[in-house]
């Protein structure tokens, strides 16, 4: 059975980045840049006043100054500032040539309509200098950047009304299991509601991928072959849940092989989430995730999310921290890398949540993080540092 990091590398190595396309800046959120973006002008583009006040020469700050004009943001200054002269200036306006300082309105004593004095000779310059943030030609965002809200103003400043991004994969979701009914149905005593599909669709949405839900398929070889092959033809990636373990009705690995898919990874040493299939045929990919809801959630986070990110040209890195446990922790078996749900308290300590295993969805629902207990470790002590993965 493969270890987590080995399996992850093998899976990511199979991803062939999808072709790129052009999208409007307004619809570029959470898309992945297929081009590096350089700025086409200095930032700021001119010496810019950072305050509402008066622009003058620093060496004249002790003197009475003669007002030559008022400069608002968007106006070109008409005069250079000479000895004992000033211009009234607004935040964001161009600082006129000759001035090397702007003193704030609050530090000004207005003598008459045309004269003013600075009351604070220790005033700061209050000028954002041309090019101090970036210079024309500088690379602002490298290719492969997953565009977050904080990147958008840079694209706008660089004049990118459209951006070249990698295509998003078409992803289908199928829940397999004869025991499953949809959430709007009342299960019979031997049935269970399908909770995996809505969860996986939401996990896809976190990647800005609108998944295609294809419904529930019973554990029936013929139906599985038929529905899975349709879903695979129409999509780049199929995510299945259920039927991947070793039971008589766990038909997914065989079904995929019968469809000509090569099983690249089968079972990995993580807990929850040991049974999982990753299969491939050309550029068509399939994840057979575990039916157990927490297992499928974690398998998606650990394997499917980095893989889909790689298809979109983005090297996904989870947010991870080393933090101390706030209690002793023990487990009976140590053959797998355990991901256990926890919250972080006000002292930045890891507080494990009550957790009964791979079906305990309400144990997971309050979690802020998953913390790791490595293979070979059964016991951890209060204060031990653990690797924490943010959700
Ligand atoms: N003899 C062995 N039995 C099992 C092993 C093993 O190694 N040897 N592994 C166990 C582990 S670990 C897990 S995890 C499960 C995984 O089984 P499958 O991935 O094949 O999933 P199913 O058997 O189809 O379902 C497991 C469980 O989850 C419920 N389920 C399934 N689909 C959904 C859904 N869409 N929404 C909500 N719940 C779902 C299903 O009813 C079962 O209770 O295998 C162990 N067995
Ligand atoms: O690997 Mo399973 O998800 O432990 O229960």
Automatic annotation (TrEMBL):
Stretches assigned to the MoaB/Mog domain: 172-310
EC number: 2.10.1.1
Reaction(s) catalysed (UniProt annotation): adenylyl-molybdopterin + molybdate = Mo-molybdopterin + AMP + H(+)
Presence of keyword Magnesium: yes
Record-linked SUPFAM superfamilies: MoeA C-terminal domain-like (SSF63867), MoeA N-terminal region -like (SSF63882), Molybdenum cofactor biosynthesis proteins (SSF53218)
Keyword Transferase: yes
UniProt KW keywords: Magnesium, Metal-binding, Molybdenum, Molybdenum cofactor biosynthesis, Transferase
Family: Belongs to the MoeA family.
Known function: Catalyzes the insertion of molybdate into adenylated molybdopterin with the concomitant release of AMP.
Pfam families in alphabetical order: MoCF_biosynth (PF00994), MoeA_C (PF03454), MoeA_N (PF03453)
UniProt-listed InterPro entries: MoaB/Mog-like_dom_sf (IPR036425), MoaB/Mog_dom (IPR001453), MoeA-like (IPR038987), MoeA_C_domain_IV (IPR005111), MoeA_C_domain_IV_sf (IPR036688), MoeA_linker/N (IPR005110), MoeA_linker/N_sf (IPR036135)
Names of the cofactor(s): Mg(2+)
Enzyme class: transferase
TM spans (from-to): none
NCBIfam families, alphabetized: Glp_gephyrin, molyb_syn
Name of the protein described by the UniProt record: Molybdopterin molybdenumtransferase
Pathway(s) annotated for this protein in UniProt: Cofactor biosynthesis; molybdopterin biosynthesis
Top-level division of the source organism's lineage: Bacteria
């Amino acid at each position: 059975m493969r270890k987590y990091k080995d399996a992850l590398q093998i899976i990511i190595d199979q991803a062939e980045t999808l072709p790129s396309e052009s999208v409007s800046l307004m619809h570029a959120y959470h898309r992945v840049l297929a081009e590096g973006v350089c700025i086409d002008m200095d930032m700021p583009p001119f010496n810019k006043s950072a305050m509402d006040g008066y622009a003058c020469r620093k060496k004249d700050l002790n003197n009475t100054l003669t007002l030559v004009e008022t400069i608002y943001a968007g106006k070109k200054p008409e005069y250079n500032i000479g000895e004992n002269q000033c211009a009234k200036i607004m935040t964001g306006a161009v600082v006129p040539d000759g001035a090397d300082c702007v003193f704030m309105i609050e530090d000004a004593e207005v003598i008459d309509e045309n004269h003013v004095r600075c009351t604070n000779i220790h005033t700061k310059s209050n000028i954002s200098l041309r090019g101090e943030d970036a210079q024309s030609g500088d690379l602002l965002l490298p290719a492969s950047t997953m565009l977050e809200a904080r990147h958008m103003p840079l694209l706008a400043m660089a004049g990118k009304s459209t951006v070249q991004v990698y295509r998003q994969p078409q992803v289908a979701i199928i829940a397999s299991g004869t025991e499953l009914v949809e959430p709007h149905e009342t299960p019979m005593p031997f049935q269970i509601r399908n909770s995996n599909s809505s969860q996986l669709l939401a996990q896809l949405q976190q990647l800005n991928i609108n998944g295609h839900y294809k419904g529930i398929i019973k554990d029936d070889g013929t139906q599985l072959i038929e529905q899975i092959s349709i879903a695979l033809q129409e999509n780049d990636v199929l995510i299945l849940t259920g039927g991947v373990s070793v039971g008589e009705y766990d038909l997914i690995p065989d079904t995929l092989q019968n469809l000509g898919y090569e099983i690249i990874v089968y079972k990995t040493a993580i807990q929850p989430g040991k049974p999982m299939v990753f299969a491939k045929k050309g550029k068509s990919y399939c994840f057979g995730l575990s039916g157990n809801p927490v297992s499928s959630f974690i398998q998606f986070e650990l394997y499917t999310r980095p893989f889909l990110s790689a298809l979109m040209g983005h090297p996904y890195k989870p947010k991870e921290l080393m933090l101390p446990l706030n209690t002793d922790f023990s487990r009976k078996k140590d053959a797998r890398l355990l991901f256990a749900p926890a919250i972080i308290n006000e002292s930045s300590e890891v507080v494990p949540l009550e957790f009964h295993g791979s079906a305990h969805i309400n144990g997971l629902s309050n979690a802020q993080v998953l913390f790791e207990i490595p293979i070979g470790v059964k016991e951890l002590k209060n204060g031990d540092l653990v690797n924490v993965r943010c959700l």
